[in-house]
Amino acid sequence: MCLMDAVSPLQAYERAVQRGFQPDQAQLQAARQLQACYEALADARGRAQGVYLWGPVGRGKTWLMDRFFESLSVPARRQHFHHFMRWVHKRMFELMGTPQP
């Protein structure tokens, strides 16, 4: 996707609904939270807080996160929570015994 084609997370959700995506109140709420994070990241003075999405399989969490990631203009790495936690535990084990890691 070209940077000029990038849209915000909330815009992506709204466009999907306009194209026939089934509206969902929980997804809209998540899109709004991702939008707030997106705006804070875009504002150099802003302090971005993270967003943690959880819920049953098939609710659209991955789709929303993919739209959020695509919208970013700052360096970022897209990683699933379980992969991230596996990396954290691996690094903790590797650093065991290291003073002030």
UniProtKB/TrEMBL annotation:
Which GO BP terms sit in this record?
cell division
Which Gene Ontology cellular component annotation is one that this UniProt entry carries?
cytoplasm
Q: Which UniProt keywords apply?
A: ATP-binding, Nucleotide-binding
Q: Where are the transmembrane segments?
A: none
Q: Which Pfam families match?
A: AFG1_ATPase
Annotated GO molecular function terms are: ATP binding; ATP hydrolysis activity
Q: Which residues form a coiled coil?
A: none
Q: Which PANTHER family match?
A: AFG1-LIKE ATPASE, ATPASE N2B
* Annotated protein name in UniProt: Putative ATPase
Q: Which organism is it from?
A: Pseudomonas amygdali pv. lachrymans
